[in-house]
Specification:
Length: 154
């Protein structure tokens, strides 16, 4: 466990936390203002299972013991991809996302990666750019949307 500033701790997610993490991801995504139908369509993508948590090192941020956010990277072919990064609405814009992303980047670097690939929600792309990621075009999805692709040197 790592204490990064007063009352903020980063720690590995524990077995049994999948439901809490999924709920937080859903609330974080909804904070962009997406409609109920769209959110319902994304529910599966925003759900993590205990099996996923067992298979991937997932980091949570706790502020005064409260779950404030979480994130995880995965190996994606020959690249390391940011698979999830979510900050609970009540804790957004307080610097926690930047700290968590920096930590995930350090972990990726320790694992031998040099770059983190980020397929971003369009409304979060500026956050990644503020954190040093470079725009690398966009990617077309099967549902017709195009998502910004960013690369972060780690
Ligand atoms: C996007 C998210 C992870 C950022 O985390 P955060 O803790 O709110 O961001 P921080 O407070 O660390 O912000 C770091 C910088 O990015 C900026 N920023 C944060 N969110 C932003 C956004 N959505 N758009 C533009 N800038 C943003 C902050 O103002 C800050 O700027 P600074 O360099 O001037 O200080 C978080 O707000 C979130 O979970 N949003 C909803 C879900 C989401 O989009 N997740 C990412 C999926 S790809």
């Amino acid at each position: 466990m790592k204490t990064l500033r007063r009352n903020l701790e980063l720690a590995r997610a524990q077995p049994g936390e999948a439901s809490d993490l999924s709920r937080l991801a859903f609330a974080a995504k909804a904070s962009h203002g997406y409609g109920a139908d769209q959110m319902a369509a994304w529910r599966t993508d925003l759900t993590v299972t205990e099996v996923f948590l067992e298979a991937h090192v997932t980091w949570v941020a706790r502020l005064d013991g409260d779950l404030a956010g979480w994130g995880v990277t995965v190996a994606w072919g020959r690249r390391c991809r940011l698979e999830h990064l979510w900050i609970a609405p009540a804790y957004q814009r307080q610097g926690i996302g930047r700290i968590l992303l920096r930590h995930l980047a350090m972990e990726a670097r320790a694992a031998g990666w040099t770059e983190l690939e980020i397929l971003s929600d369009p409304l979060a792309a500026s956050f990644y750019q503020r954190c040093g990621a470079q725009s690398a075009g966009d990617v077309a999805l099967s549902d017709g949307r195009r998502l910004p692709l960013l690369l972060l040197s780690v």
